[in-house]
Design a protein that fits this description.
homodimer, 112 residues, mainly alpha, Arc Repressor Mutant, subunit A, 11% strand, disordered N terminus, DNA-binding, WH_DNA-bd_sf (chains A, B), DNA binding (chains A, B), HxlR family transcriptional regulator (chains A, B)
Chain lengths: 112, 112
DNA sequence: TACAGTACACACCTTTTTGTAAGTATGGAA
DNA sequence: TTCCATACTTACAAAAAGGTGTGTACTGTA
């Protein structure tokens, strides 16, 4: 169990560190409806590489935003889901999403 | 006037492209109370380099989130401020900030 | 004359992030 | 025996992001 390190001093930066990068928010978004296996996550994010997916899942677990359950079976079965802290990210993603939608829409009427 | 390019297909990714990186949100946050000069922005974000600041301001201008006003004086005077679209980012930042605060607070009571 | 102040540009370098391709372990099915 | 599925790991390479240092333009001021 690693000590969680949060180097930044201001809360905006903290969040940026926790959630920054190309994939973390997309992974959390995939888990919004509950538990998923690695292979399911891959399907949900078609252009992520397996390495990236696992790597980012690990970071999210280190930050205590995602949990992992290993069934210890063969072939392996592992399930990922959001922690309470992870669920707290969902409304944030919703806002990001809405912002993107509005932004895109406004671009399509450049006459404004 | 460059055509604004938004390569991503989903609104979350669009937003991530617009606002991702280490500095953009911090710059927008600095502009929340109105117009600022470059030197003032630097003061507000002590550890950003001049190059990064200008570079990121340019990207924000390309995305139409920030505007620039050049007074054409010598020594140069230039002012930056948020566009309407840029102001729409502020509530988003507020949420990020609150998330960070809650996250940090929860870490300080690890007994939970 | 030398220097200060302001908003940049440019060259170069380091670090971080992301991607690619291969390999590992295991038991059951063919 | 060979192959499959699954969740990884590892080594390596490419690309993106970020940082440092220097230079430019111009005018006023000491």
């Amino acid at each position: 169990m690693e000590p969680i390190k949060v180097t930044a001093k201001c809360p905006i930066r903290t969040t940026l560190e926790l959630l920054g990068g190309k994939w973390k928010l997309l992974i959390i978004f995939q888990l919004k409806d509950g538990t998923k296996r690695l292979s399911e996550l891959k399907k949900g994010i078609p252009d992520i590489s397996e390495k990236m997916l696992i790597q980012e899942l690990k970071k999210l677990m280190d930050s205590d935003l995602v949990t992992r359950k290993n069934y210890g079976e063969v072939p392996p079965k592992v399930e990922y889901s959001l922690t309470v802290a992870g669920m707290a990210v969902l409304p944030l993603i919703e806002q990001l999403k809405r912002f993107g939608e509005v932004y895109i829409a406004s671009r399509q009427i450049p006459s404004l």
